[in-house]
């Protein structure tokens, strides 16, 4: 097995990667992301560190957006409270006052760390709302923030769900023993959601889902193999191509858990 490991994520036009396999390391220089992997996750992600004065300014900017969307009487009560987690977003909890019907009082702000990720607002909002409508415990995104930014970054606002964190569950031995089954049942339910409805919602939202299919992933492997000239990658590409299965008409819903923050995407079942 050969895997590509970032060794220098500086955000420059060239990125240096090490291919590790067979007990040796090979240096590979990749050309800019557009020609290899068009993904913001290859760039450095720096968490937001703000002084109390800056946090107050962030809150004021968010309040101005909320008033634009929901009416001039809406206000934020108590400012922004940072939440733990967020692989490549800065996450904050806040409460609103005088919001119109249908808008929860307790909300969560997900602030993306790159100004080039505005497309993710529409994508992830649509996915979350569709899965929520199917009856799963996924936070709804009640406010459309597409085309807007906060301190120069795209963002989305979702409802805050009641419950305890996974960390607290790990401390409770009785709950800890139930976690595998609970999480497994949750994943099974989400994966059994009708992908046709999700694809329809994404199309209506003008989201291009071609990059979310197994074929696009194979194309990325091919680009890496061609650009690097590494024999192991070429062998992997050939193995995948020769064993590529017939794709189903209705693909199943799967996760891209380790590549991006957890979100749902339609893709076919992987080859055995």
Widest sheet, order of strands: 4-5-6-7
Give the C-alpha Rg.
21 Å
CATH superfamily of the largest domain, by name, is Phosphorylase Kinase, domain 1
The description of the largest β-sheet is: 4 strands, antiparallel
Strand content: 15-25%
The domain count comes to 2
CATH-derived architecture of the largest domain: 2-Layer Sandwich
End-to-end separation in angstroms reads: 16 Å
What letter string, H or E per element, gives the SSE order? EEEHEEEHEHHHHHHEE
If you consult CATH, what is the topology of the largest domain?
A: Phosphorylase Kinase, domain 1
Mean pLDDT: 76
What gross morphology would you assign? globular
Give the beta-strand count.
Answer: 9
Oligomer: single chain
Number of helices: 8
Share of residues in helices: 25-40%
Structural class by secondary-structure content: alpha+beta
CATH class (first level) name of the largest domain:
Alpha Beta
Uncertain residue segments:
1-44, 257-272
What does it look like?
The chain is of the alpha+beta class and 272 residues long. It has two domains: 44-162, Phosphorylase Kinase, domain 1; 193-272, no CATH class. The chain has helices at 52-70, 118-133, 166-171, 173-176, 179-191, 195-204, 214-228, 231-242; strands at residues 3-8, 15-21, 24-30, 75-82, 89-97, 106-112, 155-159, 252-255, 264-267. The strands form three sheets. The chain has a four-stranded antiparallel sheet. A three-stranded antiparallel sheet has the order 1-2-3, covered by helices on one side. Strands 8-9 form a two-stranded antiparallel ribbon. Strand 4 and strand 5 (89-97) form a beta hairpin. It is globular. Mean pLDDT is 76; it is low at 1-44 and 257-272.
């Amino acid at each position: 097995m050969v895997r590509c490991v970032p060794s220098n994520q500086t955000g420059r036009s060239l990125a240096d990667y090490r291919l590790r396999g067979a007990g040796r390391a090979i240096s590979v220089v990749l050309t800019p992301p557009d020609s290899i992997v068009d993904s913001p996750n290859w760039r450095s992600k720096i968490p937001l560190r703000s002084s109390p004065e800056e946090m107050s300014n962030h809150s004021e900017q968010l309040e101005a957006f909320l008033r634009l969307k929901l009416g001039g009487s809406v206000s934020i009560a108590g400012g922004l409270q940072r939440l733990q987690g967020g692989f490549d977003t800065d996450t904050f909890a806040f409460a609103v006052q005088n919001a119109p019907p249908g808008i929860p009082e307790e909300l969560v702000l997900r602030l993306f760390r790159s100004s080039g990720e505005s497309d993710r607002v529409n994508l992830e909002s649509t996915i979350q709302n569709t899965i929520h409508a199917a009856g799963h415990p996924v936070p709804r995104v009640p406010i459309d923030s597409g085309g807007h930014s906060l301190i120069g970054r795209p963002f989305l606002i979702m409802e805050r769900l009641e419950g305890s964190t996974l960390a607290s569950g790990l401390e409770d031995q009785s709950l800890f023993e139930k976690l595998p089954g609970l999480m497994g049942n949750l994943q099974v339910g989400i994966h059994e959601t009708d992908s046709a409805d999700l694809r329809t919602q994404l199309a209506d939202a003008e989201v291009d889902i071609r990059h979310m299919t197994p074929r696009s992933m194979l194309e990325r492997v091919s680009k890496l193999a061609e650009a690097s000239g590494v024999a192991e990658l070429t062998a992997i590409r050939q193995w995948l191509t020769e064993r590529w299965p017939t794709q189903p008409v209705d693909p199943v819903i799967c996760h891209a858990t380790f590549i991006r923050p957890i979100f749902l995407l339609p893709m076919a079942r992987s080859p055995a």
